[in-house]
Automatic annotation (TrEMBL):
Transmembrane segments: 26-42
Enzyme Commission numbers on file: 3.4.21.89
Keywords per UniProt: Hydrolase, Membrane, Protease, Transmembrane, Transmembrane helix
Lineage: Bacteria, Thermotogati, Thermotogota, Thermotogae, Kosmotogales
Sequence similarity: Belongs to the peptidase S26 family.
Top-level taxonomic group: Bacteria
Active-site positions on this chain: S51, K118
Reaction(s) this enzyme catalyzes, per UniProt: Cleavage of hydrophobic, N-terminal signal or leader sequences from secreted and periplasmic proteins
GO biological process: signal peptide processing
Name used for this protein in its record: Signal peptidase I
Amino acid sequence: MSPVAKTAPATNESRVVREIKEWGKALLYAIIFGTIIRLFMFETMMVPTESMVPTIDPGDRLFVEKITYQLREPDYGDIVVFWVPFVDKESLKMLRAFDKFMDLFSPKEFKGHVKYVKRLVGKPGDVLELRVAPEYKHLEYELQKYPLDRNPRYQLYVNGKPLPEVADIRYSKEGIFADKDFYLGLAHPERVGYSFYKDFFRAYSNVIDYRGYYDDVLARLPLQDYIIYDPVTKNIKIKIPDGFYFFMGDNTLNSFDSRYFGFVPYKNIVGEPMLRIWKLSRFGPLNE
């Protein structure tokens, strides 16, 4: 047997080993770069509710770009994805296996949280209020008698002027705009007196773990300076604290937003949804 024949098997074996090593390196680099991209550049989320219909439907999966809001703050009217500052147990149940896997890479403080997508309507220092929309002015005297109105008959004013970016959206006067103690009641139903939200508070205590966020964050703010109640007109204005934002959904009748859970810290902002990747029939950029 020739010397060449004797060394051939070893040469073949080393070639296989080299191939395996090369593939292993390629896989390792892919994981490393994929993780970096996931952590710092892009995110995905599945939308569980109807809060942004018709722009975004329940079940839509969004591709979220994270770089822009690392360079600048979001602007009025922007559709923003953010980590919910409390645990939403019902939304967690809606996550698919893919979402749960991707969220393994989320920051430690947001483990067990979900992402919401809403429209930004208030920045730090802004004063927000809901006024009867022009087309309902003939009902204004009657509507002012009632602090709560679930009908979408109100226009958002920011610093005394209609916000142009949401001028065509009509909101219902609910949550903190209807009850100055709403945030307290949602966290501690036993600490509020009469409220037409009593049943709501009890029901949602089984759906979300809100008390921790209220006690650790909102209650540490001088809320009396940020929830401005006029005892004569019963009107409520909301001032946004430094470092926080206020978000509301376009589909006001089906949106659990800042009217109900309060201010969202800047650190919770994830990014801007740039592409709908599912359902395939709706694939493409969001139509804002």
